[in-house]
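Sample pair:
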Amino acid sequence: MNTNEITTIADLHNLEMRLIQKIEELVKTKHEHNSNSQKEYLKSSEVQKLLANCSEGKLKSLRDKRAIPFTFLHGLYLYPKAELLREIDRNLLLVKPKVIQGFGNSEISDLKTSNKLKNGQ
């Protein structure tokens, strides 16, 4: 800035408006970031449904083995949804094999089908 220039009230008002606009953009961006970064947690009952209605004992066993991510807060087990889904995808947890009846007299086991998929058949 040249020392011979004069700053007018209009210049100050223009600067004020640009600063307010920039602050509003920063606050909005920060708010959106905070909303997106909050983790969604599931309760044990929701995880049991997600894992094909697994029992409380099976869920406890998975926690004890550290096979699934969880946290314990105020007497509740909470499971981070995104991490849990990643872990399920990564390990393809098999909770209980189910027998599917149909196709005439033949029975197809989910476990046999999943083993064939794992073996690339």
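The chain has two domains: 8-38, 41-118.
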